[in-house]
Each structure stands twice: as C-alpha cells, then as structure tokens.
Amino acid sequence: MTFMEKLKHSSQVNRSLVCVGLDPERTKLPECVREKEHALFEFNRAIIDATADWVCAYKPQAAYYAGQNADEDLKLTIDYIHERAPEIPVILDVKRGDIGSTATMYAKEAFERYNADAVTVNPYMGFDTLKPFLDHADKGVIILCRTSNPNSGDLQNLVCGGKMVYEHVALLARDRWNYNGNAALVIGATYPEELRHVRELCPDMPFLVPGVGAQGGDVEKVVKFGCDRTGHGIVINSSRGIIYADKTENFAAGAGNAARELRDLVNSFRD
Amino acid sequence: MTFMEKLKHSSQVNRSLVCVGLDPERTKLPECVREKEHALFEFNRAIIDATADWVCAYKPQAAYYAGQNADEDLKLTIDYIHERAPEIPVILDVKRGDIGSTATMYAKEAFERYNADAVTVNPYMGFDTLKPFLDHADKGVIILCRTSNPNSGDLQNLVCGGKMVYEHVALLARDRWNYNGNAALVIGATYPEELRHVRELCPDMPFLVPGVGAQGGDVEKVVKFGCDRTGHGIVINSSRGIIYADKTENFAAGAGNAARELRDLVNSFRD
C-alpha cells in the first residue's frame, strides 16, 4: 500500500484523525524507564501499545533522537510500529531540504535506513530539492506550508503578487509538485483561518496539522476548517499532550486515554 | 575562540578562502578504502591530512552520514579535524529548521553531540526557529539566503514589497537575527549577481558560497562580487571537485593539489 492508501485505511479502521508525536526527552521520562537501555524506545513502545487503537499515524521527530545520540532508538521505534501495528503509517518528521544529490541521501535516510512511510520537507530551496522525495510515489511527502510556530509569518506571510508565500507553496504543491499524488502540506493548528484558506485552495490534499495540545491550537476549528469534503484529509498531531499526559509509572495508560479522548473530541466535531 | 574569530584566523594563517566539503559516498570511494571499517572516516582523514594547509574551513554534509548509516564516521571526522587542525573551524551542513523545542534538540546535535563550530539553518519557519542556534554566541549560524540549486528561485525570487524573498532574508539576518554577531548567509556561486547584491546589503556579514566545481559557479565573479572590503568575508566551498579530484589510491594527494589550486585561483582574483 502507498502512504496515502495506508493513511486512509488507518483513519477508517480506527475512526481517527489523530497522530501521536513520538518526541521523547530523556529527562522527562518516568523514572521507571529513564535508566533502561534504549530508554527512548522502551518509552515509545509502551506508548505505541497503549495508543495503537486510537490513532491514524505516528510521527517521530528526528531531532529528539539525533540530539540525544539515540538513532538506534528511532530505528527500533519505527520497526516496532511496523510489526505491532502494520496498518498505521509512520511519518518521519525531519523537515529536510537540500540540493538534489544531498536530498537523495536524505531520502535514503528516511525511506531505506528508517523505513518511514512519509517524510516532512522544507520548500525554501525549490522543486529540485523536493523531487528526490516526490519521486518515491509510494511514500508521502509532507511540505511545510504555514507552520504552527509564533514567527512563522516572518517569511511565510510576505505578500508576493497578491498572495502570501505560504499560498504560493500551497499552489506549487497542488499544481506542480504533486505529479505522483503523494504530496501533502503542513498547516499549523494555531492558524485556523489560514487552514480554512488552504483547504479552499487544495480541496483534495491531506494536511498534517501540528499545534493542538501544548501549542494551544483549537481542535474544533481545525476539524471544521481542515477536513476535506469526505470528512477526512487531516492528520492532527499531538506530541507532548499525549506522551506526557501522565508522568508516573502509569504513563502508557495515561497516553492511551489522552489519545482516545483527543480522537473522540475530534470526532465530535465531524458530524 | 568563537567561530567568527576562528574563521578569520584560519583564513589568514592559510591565506585561504576555500572550504572542503566532506561528502563521501561509499560507492565512489577508491577501492583501497571502500572496504575498511569506518571507510567514510578513513577517506576523510586522508583528505584532511592532505588539505589542512590550504583551507579555511571544513564542511561535512550531514546527509551523507545519515543516509549511509554512518553517524559514527561523522563524529570521528569532526573529532579528527579538531585534533589534527584545531585552528580550522568545522561547519556542519544540516540546514535545520523546526519549532523552538525541536530546534533546541538540533542545536544539541550540532554543538554538543558533534561539537561543530557552525551550522547551516533554513529560515522558512522564522526567527523563533533560528533563535536556539543564534543564542550560542560562540557558534556560527549560517542561514540559507539564495541557494545554488536550479530551482532555488521558486520561493527565493518571489517579489514581496519590491524585494525578493532572499533579500528579505538578508535584511532580517542583518537587522534582526544577528544580535550575537554570529550570523552568516549561504549564497550560491551559481548566482553571482545576487551575490553582488547581497554583499551591498550586508557589507560585513560572512557568506558561505557553495556551487563552484561540480555545480559550475564562476570563481572570479564569486571573489570579485563576494569579498568584503577587507578581502575576506567569503568561504568558498568545493566538495566533489576536491574530494574526487583523483579516484585512484592517490586520492589524498589529488585532493591536496585540487585544494591548493583552488586556493591559489581564488587568491589570484583578490586585491
């Protein structure tokens, strides 16, 4: 199955538009796992076991593994998801963007070394830096458009020819970069009006929507403005709000509850 | 010493504005090193020994290590440069850009795990995603401005309020992001007119200039348009043109010659 098929399937089977961000920080882990070998993986494994019925995707953030010298934990985590919940796609959040020969190496990293189903990429350098990812027709390529962070407007909101830079990205993705039908966009939950607007521009493209939970995005608006006409088309990511919902040895159950509650909250707005 | 001091010092001591890009690809290595344990590092070590008198910086491209499951080789390479040529700064080319909490993890990766002197970053997501790097006042933060690849104009050349996006980046870097005096810009050698223009906008900021050699940039124009008023201020990177100058077992001597020749060619256009 392609990423797009896998995502559609998992959304339907689990009746869920929720993605869990697997961004574990060693110092924030419960004491019962912190000292274990491969502590980040052990933490993730328990979270995955507890949430696999409530989510449509997992999204490990590569920086947490790279910054903590834990590449092996990332590999173990993705392998475990494929084994434990093979119907759920893995989005490797790396936000890569580099010249063609280098982007080819990054595509190897994401799709061969780590066996991810999809990857996030940065469009600043233009089409030839995205092509080595987009050429993998079975993989998802999720392009930063309007990001959730406070200063995302520094460049993304500059107005060029009557359209903001993020609108140009949405239109380039729709009209030029989606030749394999595997492109998607990142739109932050913290900018619901922009989410509504990009949905108008791109009625059929999936959106990865981070920024609910710790970053404060409004779930109701995300669902109402972000869903496509089939009531799907968004992947709502929560990281800290789920993985740290309970900081005791019951963290996994707490994460399971938080994921189910977010799924149910999202579904309550889906008519 | 800060990155900026180290770079100034190495440029003067070696009378060089040349940076060697350490982007080894296993299948392209000479047979005599290809099968060794830590082949990428062994290749790099020989290149470093042969070029250390002719360069002002080294720039390993993280993708080549990440994509070939060779993080250890990257660590060994940077450690070796610090030991063998402690006066020469290491620019870790990663082009990161992510929300604050994640960028903090990437800064740990670059500055703690790998002990780089400088890092490349992507400005698409705005100031708060660059701040975790810029706050390290002793480290260099080299921001993508006008990149060397063919489609870099897709976003970078959009005109907003009379200025192209890459000009906005140059002005933001100059006026708002350089609060610690540690910001620099990436300008591709393949766009010499833009290089001249950004030098006018930012007379005192160092530029990392990739794109000579395999990508075809014109060295004379890079030097004439890129240097600051002291005849410094540019770091001209060549990767494939130096590391693959000779593909036999004499590869290291070939790289040394290529680095020296590029240094001398660059210097022939200075003052």
TrEMBL record, chains A, B:
UniProt GO BP: 'de novo' pyrimidine nucleobase biosynthetic process; 'de novo' UMP biosynthetic process
Pathway: Pyrimidine metabolism; UMP biosynthesis via de novo pathway; UMP from orotate: step 2/2
SMART domains found in the cross-reference section: OMPdecase
An example Gene Ontology molecular-function term: orotidine-5'-phosphate decarboxylase activity
UniProt keyword Lyase present: yes
EC number: 4.1.1.23
Keywords, alphabetical: Decarboxylase, Lyase, Pyrimidine biosynthesis
Residues making up the signal peptide according to the UniProt record: none
SUPFAM superfamilies listed in its UniProt record: Ribulose-phoshate binding barrel
Swiss-Prot/TrEMBL catalytic activity: orotidine 5'-phosphate + H(+) = UMP + CO2
Active-site residues per Swiss-Prot or TrEMBL entry: 95
Pfam families from the UniProt entry: OMPdecase
Domain Orotidine 5'-phosphate decarboxylase: 17-255
Name of the top EC class for this enzyme: lyase
Similarity remark: Belongs to the OMP decarboxylase family. Type 2 subfamily.
PANTHER family associated with the record: OROTIDINE 5'-PHOSPHATE DECARBOXYLASE
Protein name (database record): Orotidine 5'-phosphate decarboxylase
